[in-house]
Amino acid sequence: MNQIFNIGFKPLFLCTGISALLLIGVWTAYLNGLWPAFSPRVNPVFWHGHEMLFGFVGSAIGGFLLTAVASWTKRPPVQGPLLALIVFAWLAGRWVMAADVALPFFLIVAIDAAYWLFLTTIVGREVILSRNHRNLPVVLILLGFFSLTIVFHFYPMEALRGGVALVCILIMLIAGRIIPAFTTNWLKLNRGPLPPIPVSFNRFDTMVVLFTLPTLVVWSITPYEPLLGWMLLFVSLLHTLRLTRWQGHRTFSEPLVFSLHAGYAWLPIGFALLGLTALNGRLPVPVGIHAIGIGAIAAMILAVSTRAAKGHSGRALASDPLLSLCFILIHLAAVLRISTNFFPSLLVGASVIWLISFCIFMFLLIQIIFLPADLEES
């Protein structure tokens, strides 16, 4: 057990992979009449959204932050019983939302929100004790997730849109640091000091964030306003320009780096689709949400988590054919899923491709966790 609970990414990325397989497998079976709805208290669509956002995405966020915060703060990593408690809280949240438990309403809400409370408290403690003020916005985002987990039980649709918005903000902030940094490092090692180099976070990035924040707040509250549509299209353009400054086209030969750029590219695509929905009302909201949810969020989870797992286990930061296939499949799943709003028969195919992608992820992750790097490579 010490091998699993010695660093945050190990148990929580395992939770991410398992939940990706179970949630989509069960949801696809439910849509095809092969599985009953889980929770009698929650509309099945809301349950699906809740578990994908606060469960699947939540464990990925926790695994990344609990691993990264040690590097940010230069403090010992969260591990042992405390890490096990966080994982237990995540599992308890999944249980209370899926099972028909005879518990008071306030206790159900408390169990559902406990994981986010623990994660916010622990990451906040590390950031504050180390005076790592640069990462205080991350703590505020975690506090937002904790709050939205509670809000969900009263206003589920608004809470889910707010959660999607928070993940977009987290991607904007974290990706804005790591993508240009990782790209620069790779280009220097493999292409030499050839200009232009990726542009690090500067005033333009700050402007992009400042325009995007109020746009996402408005979208979370009322997603169908025509003015919002133009705001989303403008924000989509800003993020497209931001992405071009990171020189992603020069990293195509290394999927572990290029996958970060490809995942981020779905963010402006999703914003544009949501903008078109707000403008004409004929394009369903799920088109943009799934572009962001699968294309941006799930693809970034695969790209960031595999890189973090490799880096923190002493493995080479390079892709291989199987991992490259994993990345390709998740983007294909995104294309098929947003197409199902026009061609419903593609839904099963999108689900199967998602499941294959995360089966590959789990296979590779289990190797990383349980096999020494030298033994795996031999």
Walk me through what this model shows.
By secondary structure, the protein is mainly α. The longest helix has 35 residues, at 156-190. It has helices at 9-31, 44-73, 80-98, 105-129, 136-151, 156-190, 203-221, 226-244, 255-280, 285-311, 321-339, 347-370, 373-377. The protein is built from 13 helices and no strands. The relative contact order is 0.10.
Low-confidence stretches: none
Large-scale geometry? globular
Question: Given the helix and strand composition, which structural class is it?
Answer: mainly alpha
Number of helices: 13
The portion of residues forming beta strands comes to: under 5%
Round the Cα radius of gyration to an integer and report it: 20 Å
SSE string, helices as H and strands as E: HHHHHHHHHHHHH
Total E-strand runs: 0
Oligomer: single chain
Please estimate the helix content: over 70%
Question: What integer is the average pLDDT?
Answer: 92
Give the terminus-to-terminus CA distance. Answer: 25 Å
Main pleated sheet:
none
In terms of topology, how is this protein built?
Elements: H1 9-31, H2 44-73, H3 80-98, H4 105-129, H5 136-151, H6 156-190, H7 203-221, H8 226-244, H9 255-280, H10 285-311, H11 321-339, H12 347-370, H13 373-377
Helix pairs in contact: 1-2, 1-12, 2-3, 2-4, 2-6, 2-10, 3-4, 4-5, 5-6, 6-7, 6-9, 6-10, 7-8, 8-9, 9-10, 9-11, 10-11, 10-12, 11-12
Keywords for this entry:
single chain; 378 residues; mainly alpha; 76% helix
Give the structure's gist in a few sentences.
The protein has 378 residues and is an all-alpha fold. The chain contains 13 helices and no strands.
